[in-house]
Amino acid sequence: MKKRKILFLPHGNLQYSQLDPEKRGWVAQQSYEPLFDLVASDDRYRIGFEASGKTLEIMAEQYPKSLDKLKALVKEGRIEGVASPHTHIMLSNIDPEIGFHSLLDGLDSWERYVGVRPETGWNPECSWAEYLPSIYREAGFKNLIGDADSLFLSFDEIREATGLSYDVRSHSNKNKLFRIEDYIKDKPDFLRLLTNPTELSNGLRLIFRSDMMANPMLWYLMGATEGNRETPVQLEEIRESLERWSQRVEETGSFIMPYAEDAEYIGTSAYFYVKQFNEARFFEPMPESVDRFKELLDVSLDLGYELGTPAEVIESSQEIIKSDQVYKVDNGIAWHGGTAKAWANTVYSRIMDPVCRDIHDGLRRVSQRLGTDFGTMRDDLQEARRLLTNAWVSDSRWPPLPTTPGRFNVKESIADLKEANTVLENVIVTVGLVELKSLYSPELIRTQIASIEEELMAMEYFEESVVSVKA
What we know:
Blueprint: E1 5-8, E2 11-12, H1 24-40, E3 47-51, H2 53-62, H3 64-76, E4 79-83, H4 96-113, E5 120-121, H5 132-139, E6 143-147, H6 148-152, H7 156-162, H8 178-184, H9 188-195, E7 198-199, E8 205-209, H10 211-222, H11 235-252, E9 255-259, E10 267-268, H12 272-277, E11 285-286, H13 288-302, E12 306-307, H14 310-315, E13 321-322, H15 340-344, H16 347-369, H17 379-391, H18 407-430, H19 442-457, H20 462-465
Parallel strand pairs: 1-9, 1-12, 2-3, 3-4, 4-5, 5-6, 6-8, 7-13
Antiparallel strand pairs: 7-8, 10-11
Helix pairs in contact: 1-2, 1-3, 2-3, 2-4, 4-5, 9-11, 10-11, 10-13, 11-13, 16-17, 16-18, 16-19, 17-18, 18-19
Protein backbone atom coordinates (compact mmCIF):
# COMPACT_ATOMS: atom_id res chain seq x y z
CA MET A 1 0.00 0.00 0.00
CA LYS A 2 1.35 3.43 -0.90
CA LYS A 3 2.07 5.75 2.00
CA ARG A 4 -0.27 8.67 2.46
CA LYS A 5 1.75 11.71 3.48
CA ILE A 6 0.46 14.74 5.32
CA LEU A 7 2.08 18.15 5.47
CA PHE A 8 1.67 20.73 8.21
CA LEU A 9 3.21 24.09 7.36
CA PRO A 10 2.97 26.86 9.98
CA HIS A 11 4.35 30.15 8.73
CA GLY A 12 5.83 32.93 10.84
CA ASN A 13 5.49 36.69 10.44
CA LEU A 14 6.75 38.99 13.18
CA GLN A 15 5.74 42.08 11.23
CA TYR A 16 2.12 41.21 11.99
CA SER A 17 -0.48 43.96 12.13
CA GLN A 18 -1.19 44.92 15.75
CA LEU A 19 1.87 43.02 17.02
CA ASP A 20 3.72 45.64 19.06
CA PRO A 21 7.44 45.65 18.11
CA GLU A 22 8.34 45.25 21.77
CA LYS A 23 6.29 42.04 21.92
CA ARG A 24 7.78 40.34 18.86
CA GLY A 25 10.43 38.48 20.83
CA TRP A 26 7.71 37.30 23.22
CA VAL A 27 5.84 35.74 20.27
CA ALA A 28 9.00 33.88 19.24
CA GLN A 29 9.20 32.59 22.80
CA GLN A 30 5.50 31.90 23.27
CA SER A 31 4.79 30.41 19.84
CA TYR A 32 7.81 29.40 17.76
CA GLU A 33 9.90 27.88 20.56
CA PRO A 34 7.09 25.58 21.85
CA LEU A 35 6.40 24.53 18.25
CA PHE A 36 10.06 23.62 17.73
CA ASP A 37 10.16 21.80 21.08
CA LEU A 38 7.09 19.84 20.02
CA VAL A 39 8.68 18.76 16.73
CA ALA A 40 11.83 17.73 18.60
CA SER A 41 9.83 15.63 21.09
CA ASP A 42 8.88 12.80 18.70
CA ASP A 43 10.95 11.30 15.88
CA ARG A 44 7.79 10.89 13.79
CA TYR A 45 7.12 14.63 13.67
CA ARG A 46 8.21 16.44 10.50
CA ILE A 47 6.83 19.75 9.26
CA GLY A 48 7.59 22.71 7.06
CA PHE A 49 8.17 26.12 8.64
CA GLU A 50 8.06 29.38 6.72
CA ALA A 51 9.54 32.64 7.90
CA SER A 52 10.29 35.89 6.17
CA GLY A 53 13.86 37.14 6.31
CA LYS A 54 12.71 39.95 8.59
CA THR A 55 11.15 37.41 10.96
CA LEU A 56 14.45 35.51 11.16
CA GLU A 57 16.26 38.80 11.77
CA ILE A 58 13.91 39.72 14.62
CA MET A 59 14.24 36.24 16.14
CA ALA A 60 18.02 36.62 16.10
CA GLU A 61 17.83 40.01 17.77
CA GLN A 62 15.03 39.51 20.29
CA TYR A 63 14.88 35.79 21.07
CA PRO A 64 17.83 33.91 19.53
CA LYS A 65 16.99 30.74 21.47
CA SER A 66 14.06 30.11 19.13
CA LEU A 67 16.32 30.57 16.10
CA ASP A 68 18.88 28.14 17.51
CA LYS A 69 16.18 25.48 17.87
CA LEU A 70 14.92 26.08 14.34
CA LYS A 71 18.45 25.82 12.97
CA ALA A 72 19.04 22.50 14.76
CA LEU A 73 15.79 20.96 13.49
CA VAL A 74 16.46 22.09 9.93
CA LYS A 75 19.92 20.55 10.12
CA GLU A 76 18.39 17.26 11.34
CA GLY A 77 15.87 17.25 8.50
CA ARG A 78 12.92 17.40 10.91
CA ILE A 79 11.85 20.82 9.62
CA GLU A 80 12.15 22.05 6.05
CA GLY A 81 12.72 25.78 5.85
CA VAL A 82 10.33 27.60 3.52
CA ALA A 83 11.31 31.08 2.33
CA SER A 84 9.37 34.12 1.20
CA PRO A 85 10.14 37.78 0.50
CA HIS A 86 12.42 39.31 3.12
CA THR A 87 9.61 41.73 3.99
CA HIS A 88 6.01 40.52 4.31
CA ILE A 89 4.71 42.25 1.18
CA MET A 90 1.70 41.65 -1.04
CA LEU A 91 3.58 40.59 -4.15
CA SER A 92 0.72 41.05 -6.59
CA ASN A 93 0.31 44.69 -5.49
CA ILE A 94 3.96 45.64 -6.07
CA ASP A 95 6.24 45.97 -9.07
CA PRO A 96 7.73 42.53 -9.91
CA GLU A 97 11.33 43.77 -9.61
CA ILE A 98 10.72 44.81 -5.99
CA GLY A 99 9.21 41.39 -5.26
CA PHE A 100 11.97 39.49 -7.05
CA HIS A 101 14.80 41.18 -5.18
CA SER A 102 12.97 40.81 -1.86
CA LEU A 103 12.78 37.07 -2.58
CA LEU A 104 16.55 37.03 -3.05
CA ASP A 105 16.97 38.98 0.20
CA GLY A 106 14.75 36.46 1.97
CA LEU A 107 16.84 33.56 0.72
CA ASP A 108 20.01 35.37 1.78
CA SER A 109 18.56 35.76 5.29
CA TRP A 110 17.78 32.04 5.55
CA GLU A 111 21.35 31.29 4.52
CA ARG A 112 22.74 33.82 7.00
CA TYR A 113 20.64 32.85 10.02
CA VAL A 114 19.80 29.16 9.46
CA GLY A 115 22.54 27.97 7.12
CA VAL A 116 20.29 26.77 4.28
CA ARG A 117 18.91 28.27 1.09
CA PRO A 118 15.34 26.92 0.85
CA GLU A 119 14.01 25.50 -2.41
CA THR A 120 10.35 25.80 -1.36
CA GLY A 121 8.68 29.19 -1.38
CA TRP A 122 5.73 30.79 0.37
CA ASN A 123 3.75 33.62 -1.23
CA PRO A 124 2.48 36.01 1.49
CA GLU A 125 -1.29 35.84 1.83
CA CYS A 126 -1.24 33.74 -1.39
CA SER A 127 -1.74 36.90 -3.44
CA TRP A 128 -1.72 36.22 -7.16
CA ALA A 129 -0.57 37.73 -10.44
CA GLU A 130 0.61 36.19 -13.70
CA TYR A 131 4.29 37.03 -13.06
CA LEU A 132 4.55 35.32 -9.66
CA PRO A 133 5.69 31.87 -10.89
CA SER A 134 8.35 33.59 -12.99
CA ILE A 135 9.92 35.60 -10.18
CA TYR A 136 9.95 32.60 -7.82
CA ARG A 137 11.55 30.41 -10.47
CA GLU A 138 14.07 33.10 -11.40
CA ALA A 139 14.98 33.56 -7.72
CA GLY A 140 15.94 29.87 -7.54
CA PHE A 141 12.88 28.20 -6.04
CA LYS A 142 11.90 24.74 -7.21
CA ASN A 143 8.61 24.56 -5.31
CA LEU A 144 5.86 26.98 -4.30
CA ILE A 145 2.93 26.65 -1.91
CA GLY A 146 -0.28 27.58 -3.71
CA ASP A 147 -3.83 28.27 -2.60
CA ALA A 148 -6.23 25.55 -3.69
CA ASP A 149 -9.36 27.59 -2.99
CA SER A 150 -8.22 30.26 -5.46
CA LEU A 151 -7.35 27.54 -7.96
CA PHE A 152 -10.75 25.87 -7.63
CA LEU A 153 -12.56 29.18 -8.01
CA SER A 154 -10.80 29.65 -11.35
CA PHE A 155 -13.15 26.94 -12.65
CA ASP A 156 -16.49 28.48 -13.64
CA GLU A 157 -18.46 25.41 -12.62
CA ILE A 158 -17.11 25.52 -9.05
CA ARG A 159 -17.72 29.25 -8.71
CA GLU A 160 -21.28 28.81 -9.96
CA ALA A 161 -21.95 25.75 -7.80
CA THR A 162 -20.68 27.36 -4.60
CA GLY A 163 -22.02 30.84 -5.17
CA LEU A 164 -18.67 32.27 -4.06
CA SER A 165 -17.39 35.50 -5.57
CA TYR A 166 -14.63 38.03 -5.00
CA ASP A 167 -15.09 41.61 -3.81
CA VAL A 168 -12.25 43.96 -2.81
CA ARG A 169 -14.58 45.44 -0.19
CA SER A 170 -14.98 42.18 1.71
CA HIS A 171 -12.58 40.63 4.19
CA SER A 172 -12.78 37.08 2.86
CA ASN A 173 -15.00 34.05 2.22
CA LYS A 174 -13.01 32.07 4.79
CA ASN A 175 -15.93 30.53 6.68
CA LYS A 176 -17.76 29.61 3.47
CA LEU A 177 -15.02 27.68 1.67
CA PHE A 178 -16.35 24.35 2.94
CA ARG A 179 -18.76 24.67 0.01
CA ILE A 180 -15.88 23.80 -2.31
CA GLU A 181 -15.33 20.49 -0.52
CA ASP A 182 -19.04 19.77 -0.69
CA TYR A 183 -18.87 20.16 -4.46
CA ILE A 184 -15.60 18.36 -5.29
CA LYS A 185 -15.87 15.48 -2.78
CA ASP A 186 -16.96 13.02 -5.47
CA LYS A 187 -15.04 14.55 -8.39
CA PRO A 188 -11.61 12.89 -8.75
CA ASP A 189 -10.30 15.31 -11.37
CA PHE A 190 -10.59 18.16 -8.89
CA LEU A 191 -9.43 16.13 -5.88
CA ARG A 192 -6.25 15.23 -7.76
CA LEU A 193 -5.22 18.89 -7.68
CA LEU A 194 -5.05 18.73 -3.88
CA THR A 195 -3.45 15.31 -3.54
CA ASN A 196 -0.67 15.63 -6.16
CA PRO A 197 1.95 18.24 -7.07
CA THR A 198 1.40 20.37 -10.16
CA GLU A 199 4.26 21.35 -12.45
CA LEU A 200 3.98 24.53 -14.49
CA SER A 201 5.44 24.93 -17.96
CA ASN A 202 8.34 26.94 -16.48
CA GLY A 203 9.27 23.96 -14.26
CA LEU A 204 8.01 25.37 -10.95
CA ARG A 205 6.19 22.74 -8.88
CA LEU A 206 3.16 23.72 -6.80
CA ILE A 207 1.45 22.03 -3.88
CA PHE A 208 -1.81 23.45 -2.58
CA ARG A 209 -3.21 24.36 0.83
CA SER A 210 -6.91 24.90 1.47
CA ASP A 211 -9.19 26.41 4.10
CA MET A 212 -11.47 23.42 3.60
CA MET A 213 -9.24 21.68 6.12
CA ALA A 214 -7.20 24.52 7.63
CA ASN A 215 -10.10 26.64 8.85
CA PRO A 216 -11.72 23.98 11.10
CA MET A 217 -8.25 23.19 12.45
CA LEU A 218 -7.69 26.86 13.25
CA TRP A 219 -10.99 27.06 15.13
CA TYR A 220 -9.98 23.89 16.97
CA LEU A 221 -6.64 25.43 18.00
CA MET A 222 -8.46 28.50 19.31
CA GLY A 223 -11.13 26.49 21.14
CA ALA A 224 -13.70 28.92 19.77
CA THR A 225 -17.08 28.66 18.10
CA GLU A 226 -17.95 29.95 14.67
CA GLY A 227 -20.84 32.03 15.88
CA ASN A 228 -23.40 29.57 14.54
CA ARG A 229 -22.71 26.66 16.88
CA GLU A 230 -22.94 26.19 20.63
CA THR A 231 -19.75 24.24 21.20
CA PRO A 232 -16.20 24.62 19.86
CA VAL A 233 -14.84 22.35 17.14
CA GLN A 234 -14.00 18.98 18.66
CA LEU A 235 -11.05 16.71 17.91
CA GLU A 236 -13.45 14.04 16.67
CA GLU A 237 -14.61 16.41 13.93
CA ILE A 238 -11.00 16.87 12.83
CA ARG A 239 -10.52 13.10 12.87
CA GLU A 240 -13.59 12.58 10.69
CA SER A 241 -12.34 15.18 8.22
CA LEU A 242 -8.90 13.58 8.01
CA GLU A 243 -10.54 10.17 7.55
CA ARG A 244 -12.57 11.48 4.61
CA TRP A 245 -9.45 12.94 3.05
CA SER A 246 -7.49 9.77 3.72
CA GLN A 247 -9.82 7.88 1.40
CA ARG A 248 -9.56 10.63 -1.21
CA VAL A 249 -5.76 10.57 -1.04
CA GLU A 250 -5.82 6.81 -1.44
CA GLU A 251 -7.95 7.09 -4.57
CA THR A 252 -6.50 10.17 -6.27
CA GLY A 253 -2.96 10.97 -5.11
CA SER A 254 -0.42 10.70 -2.33
CA PHE A 255 -0.70 13.56 0.19
CA ILE A 256 -2.69 16.46 1.64
CA MET A 257 -1.61 19.73 3.25
CA PRO A 258 -4.37 20.35 5.82
CA TYR A 259 -2.65 23.16 7.76
CA ALA A 260 -0.74 26.00 6.15
CA GLU A 261 -1.70 28.82 8.48
CA ASP A 262 -0.09 31.37 10.78
CA ALA A 263 2.41 29.81 13.19
CA GLU A 264 1.40 32.40 15.76
CA TYR A 265 -1.90 30.59 16.30
CA ILE A 266 0.18 27.87 17.95
CA GLY A 267 0.87 29.40 21.37
CA THR A 268 -1.03 32.69 21.05
CA SER A 269 -4.41 33.93 19.85
CA ALA A 270 -2.56 36.02 17.23
CA TYR A 271 -5.11 37.94 15.16
CA PHE A 272 -8.02 35.56 15.62
CA TYR A 273 -10.38 37.77 17.62
CA VAL A 274 -9.76 40.80 15.45
CA LYS A 275 -10.34 38.90 12.22
CA GLN A 276 -13.36 36.92 13.31
CA PHE A 277 -15.14 39.12 15.86
CA ASN A 278 -13.74 42.67 15.46
CA GLU A 279 -12.52 42.51 19.07
CA ALA A 280 -9.43 44.47 20.11
CA ARG A 281 -7.66 41.36 21.39
CA PHE A 282 -4.20 40.76 20.00
CA PHE A 283 -1.67 38.00 20.67
CA GLU A 284 -2.97 36.75 23.99
CA PRO A 285 -1.16 33.77 25.54
CA MET A 286 -2.77 30.50 24.50
CA PRO A 287 -0.43 27.66 25.54
CA GLU A 288 -3.26 25.13 25.23
CA SER A 289 -3.17 25.59 21.45
CA VAL A 290 0.29 23.99 21.42
CA ASP A 291 -1.23 20.87 22.97
CA ARG A 292 -4.03 20.98 20.42
CA PHE A 293 -1.55 21.22 17.56
CA LYS A 294 0.16 18.13 18.95
CA GLU A 295 -3.24 16.41 18.88
CA LEU A 296 -3.57 17.30 15.18
CA LEU A 297 -0.24 15.64 14.47
CA ASP A 298 -1.05 12.61 16.60
CA VAL A 299 -4.49 11.99 15.14
CA SER A 300 -2.92 12.15 11.68
CA LEU A 301 -0.41 9.49 12.66
CA ASP A 302 -3.16 7.38 14.26
CA LEU A 303 -5.02 7.41 10.96
CA GLY A 304 -2.01 6.05 9.10
CA TYR A 305 -0.65 9.25 7.60
CA GLU A 306 3.10 9.82 7.49
CA LEU A 307 4.19 13.34 8.39
CA GLY A 308 6.43 14.91 5.75
CA THR A 309 8.11 18.11 4.65
CA PRO A 310 7.21 19.96 1.42
CA ALA A 311 10.11 18.48 -0.54
CA GLU A 312 9.35 14.99 0.80
CA VAL A 313 5.70 15.01 -0.24
CA ILE A 314 6.70 16.18 -3.71
CA GLU A 315 9.54 13.73 -4.21
CA SER A 316 7.48 10.76 -2.98
CA SER A 317 4.49 11.57 -5.19
CA GLN A 318 3.70 8.99 -7.84
CA GLU A 319 2.19 11.59 -10.16
CA ILE A 320 3.00 15.19 -10.98
CA ILE A 321 0.23 16.97 -12.86
CA LYS A 322 1.38 19.06 -15.81
CA SER A 323 -0.92 22.08 -15.85
CA ASP A 324 -0.92 25.86 -16.22
CA GLN A 325 -4.40 26.26 -14.75
CA VAL A 326 -3.04 28.70 -12.14
CA TYR A 327 -2.66 31.30 -14.87
CA LYS A 328 -6.46 31.35 -15.02
CA VAL A 329 -6.64 32.41 -11.37
CA ASP A 330 -7.84 36.01 -11.00
CA ASN A 331 -5.16 38.68 -10.87
CA GLY A 332 -5.36 40.32 -7.46
CA ILE A 333 -6.86 37.54 -5.35
CA ALA A 334 -5.54 36.23 -2.03
CA TRP A 335 -6.18 33.26 0.22
CA HIS A 336 -9.31 32.73 2.35
CA GLY A 337 -11.45 33.52 -0.68
CA GLY A 338 -10.33 37.14 -0.36
CA THR A 339 -8.36 39.56 -2.51
CA ALA A 340 -4.92 41.11 -2.48
CA LYS A 341 -6.57 44.19 -3.91
CA ALA A 342 -8.41 44.58 -0.60
CA TRP A 343 -4.97 45.41 0.88
CA ALA A 344 -4.39 47.92 -1.94
CA ASN A 345 -7.73 49.62 -1.31
CA THR A 346 -7.45 50.43 2.38
CA VAL A 347 -7.01 54.08 3.30
CA TYR A 348 -3.45 53.37 4.47
CA SER A 349 -2.44 51.92 1.09
CA ARG A 350 -4.09 54.74 -0.81
CA ILE A 351 -2.08 57.25 1.21
CA MET A 352 1.29 55.46 1.41
CA ASP A 353 1.54 53.62 -1.91
CA PRO A 354 1.91 56.72 -4.15
CA VAL A 355 4.92 57.84 -2.09
CA CYS A 356 6.41 54.34 -2.30
CA ARG A 357 5.98 54.42 -6.07
CA ASP A 358 7.60 57.87 -6.34
CA ILE A 359 10.68 56.68 -4.45
CA HIS A 360 10.72 53.49 -6.52
CA ASP A 361 10.66 55.54 -9.72
CA GLY A 362 13.46 57.71 -8.39
CA LEU A 363 15.56 54.67 -7.53
CA ARG A 364 15.09 53.29 -11.02
CA ARG A 365 15.95 56.58 -12.72
CA VAL A 366 19.06 57.22 -10.64
CA SER A 367 20.23 53.65 -11.17
CA GLN A 368 19.72 53.92 -14.93
CA ARG A 369 21.56 57.24 -14.97
CA LEU A 370 24.52 55.45 -13.38
CA GLY A 371 24.36 52.68 -15.99
CA THR A 372 22.99 49.96 -13.71
CA ASP A 373 19.69 48.21 -13.02
CA PHE A 374 18.02 46.86 -9.87
CA GLY A 375 20.25 43.81 -9.90
CA THR A 376 23.56 45.56 -10.37
CA MET A 377 23.14 48.95 -8.70
CA ARG A 378 25.59 50.09 -6.03
CA ASP A 379 25.27 48.98 -2.41
CA ASP A 380 23.80 52.20 -1.05
CA LEU A 381 21.05 52.13 -3.68
CA GLN A 382 20.40 48.50 -2.73
CA GLU A 383 19.98 49.67 0.86
CA ALA A 384 17.47 52.30 -0.28
CA ARG A 385 15.60 49.55 -2.15
CA ARG A 386 15.45 47.36 0.96
CA LEU A 387 14.16 50.26 3.07
CA LEU A 388 11.54 51.05 0.43
CA THR A 389 10.45 47.40 0.39
CA ASN A 390 10.12 47.49 4.18
CA ALA A 391 7.83 50.51 3.80
CA TRP A 392 5.61 48.39 1.54
CA VAL A 393 5.04 45.80 4.31
CA SER A 394 1.49 44.49 4.05
CA ASP A 395 0.64 44.74 7.74
CA SER A 396 0.86 48.53 7.88
CA ARG A 397 -1.99 48.51 5.33
CA TRP A 398 -4.35 45.98 6.89
CA PRO A 399 -7.08 45.49 7.95
CA PRO A 400 -9.78 47.77 6.52
CA LEU A 401 -12.11 49.83 8.67
CA PRO A 402 -13.63 49.50 11.22
CA THR A 403 -10.52 47.64 12.35
CA THR A 404 -7.07 49.04 11.58
CA PRO A 405 -3.38 48.21 11.70
CA GLY A 406 -1.52 49.36 14.79
CA ARG A 407 -0.32 52.95 14.85
CA PHE A 408 3.18 51.52 15.33
CA ASN A 409 2.85 49.45 12.13
CA VAL A 410 2.16 52.62 10.15
CA LYS A 411 4.94 54.52 11.96
CA GLU A 412 7.46 51.87 10.89
CA SER A 413 6.54 52.31 7.22
CA ILE A 414 6.79 56.08 7.46
CA ALA A 415 10.21 55.78 9.12
CA ASP A 416 11.39 53.46 6.32
CA LEU A 417 10.18 55.92 3.68
CA LYS A 418 12.09 58.73 5.35
CA GLU A 419 15.27 56.70 5.55
CA ALA A 420 14.99 55.43 1.97
CA ASN A 421 14.61 59.01 0.74
CA THR A 422 17.63 60.12 2.81
CA VAL A 423 19.81 57.29 1.48
CA LEU A 424 18.80 58.11 -2.09
CA GLU A 425 19.54 61.79 -1.45
CA ASN A 426 23.02 60.93 -0.15
CA VAL A 427 23.73 58.89 -3.27
CA ILE A 428 22.68 61.79 -5.49
CA VAL A 429 25.09 64.07 -3.63
CA THR A 430 27.92 61.52 -3.71
CA VAL A 431 27.73 60.89 -7.46
CA GLY A 432 27.36 64.57 -8.37
CA LEU A 433 23.73 64.57 -9.49
CA VAL A 434 22.47 66.98 -6.85
CA GLU A 435 21.70 69.76 -9.33
CA LEU A 436 19.78 67.46 -11.63
CA LYS A 437 16.56 67.95 -9.70
CA SER A 438 14.40 66.82 -12.62
CA LEU A 439 15.83 63.32 -12.05
CA TYR A 440 14.66 63.08 -8.43
CA SER A 441 13.85 65.72 -5.87
CA PRO A 442 14.41 64.45 -2.31
CA GLU A 443 13.28 67.79 -0.90
CA LEU A 444 9.83 67.42 -2.43
CA ILE A 445 9.58 63.77 -1.39
CA ARG A 446 10.48 64.81 2.16
CA THR A 447 7.50 67.17 2.24
CA GLN A 448 5.31 64.49 0.68
CA ILE A 449 6.25 62.07 3.47
CA ALA A 450 5.58 64.78 6.06
CA SER A 451 2.16 65.37 4.53
CA ILE A 452 1.07 61.73 4.68
CA GLU A 453 2.57 61.37 8.16
CA GLU A 454 0.38 64.20 9.42
CA GLU A 455 -2.68 62.61 7.84
CA LEU A 456 -1.96 59.08 9.05
CA MET A 457 -1.00 60.07 12.59
CA ALA A 458 -4.16 62.18 12.96
CA MET A 459 -6.26 59.05 12.48
CA GLU A 460 -7.77 57.01 15.28
CA TYR A 461 -6.43 53.47 15.52
CA PHE A 462 -8.35 50.38 16.54
CA GLU A 463 -6.27 49.44 19.56
CA GLU A 464 -6.70 52.96 20.96
CA SER A 465 -10.44 53.36 20.39
CA VAL A 466 -11.86 49.96 21.32
CA VAL A 467 -11.78 48.56 24.83
CA SER A 468 -10.56 44.95 24.87
CA VAL A 469 -13.40 42.61 25.74
CA LYS A 470 -12.59 39.16 27.11
CA ALA A 471 -14.83 36.41 25.76
